[in-house]
Specification:
By secondary structure, this protein is mainly beta. Helix content is 9%, strand content 52%.
Amino acid sequence: MKIHILAFIFFFFIHAGEALSEELPLYLTYMGAGQPASMVLPDGQLQIDLSYSLMNDAVDILGLKQREEQKLAISGGKIGDYTGLNLGLHYGLTHNLTCSGGYKYLTLGYQDTDLNIKTLDISTRWTPNGYLALDLGLKAHQADDLIMADLAYMNYYVHKFKSNLDIEVDNQYVWYVLTYPDMIIRYGIPRKADPQISVEDMQDYTWYLRLTLGYPEKIFYPNIFLEAGYTRIDTRLDTNLTDMIPQSYKSYLPDFPIDLGRTERYLSAGFSFFLQTPFDTITHLEYEYKRIYRDKGLDYIPDNHIARGEIAYLLTQNVILHLGATLLYRQFNGEIPFLYNKYTQTTFDHPYGWMEFGVRYLF
């Protein structure tokens, strides 16, 4: 294995000719959103991507949703259906440099409601010769405040603070129930408002740098990559329980709002293969291992395995249709950073996935 790696590096450095993207067939001159590759778009070429992604009971990748729902009880980080509308722009600024921008609007079934997430990805890719590429980018996620009034989710968080305390509600009272081995203590106060817990200011920003080595040929185009990123997360947890809890119970709850903001770093590595397949199609296979470095107490699940596959059909020299899928071994761990915090981290130990289809147009 070491000999093959050294031979690859030696060939890369002694190769005298330039393998610029405009010298290659069409199937090597388009860019997939986020797909690591050593090539850039030809000088002056514009590419527009439009795609739709989804996962639900009818579109369930490998039966993951059904299988995991049978194993999971209600928890504060369980995620249900997924839909996403994606728009991407790529432009070959020079024969060595491509600029890209992407916007996604995602809707996740999250904690018995819909969580709408807006994603922005801006990057540049530079290559000296088509065999080595350097990507520099910024990814950001932002979501509206999430208000949870469902008692099951409410008590999920309450148990994080006081394991034997439950909240119950009837038509007239909000009950605070303490359960001990030999007794149960119930304390009720008049119901003037419904108890709620909210997750607010959900956003994160990730600066990343990716190095990709590729060997572009007309039939098979393998790439290996290494990526590093730094993420800033801003999130806080709040509740109206502090305004309605009995004085003798106040010590059971922490001081609200709770600041969940933090920073984290990650390293990832993997491969990205493109293969010319029959019937004017291109098959793309990608694997990434991501290791996330967080503070102590936030390291319950420190990594993720991500697999992606796609078949692209060259309808014309300018129009490319594509159908693909993404599989995550540890849900959105490291992919949407603000979803992971000290209260939800134990719920990320199950897989997730979705399908995606769309069109790319080359100008």
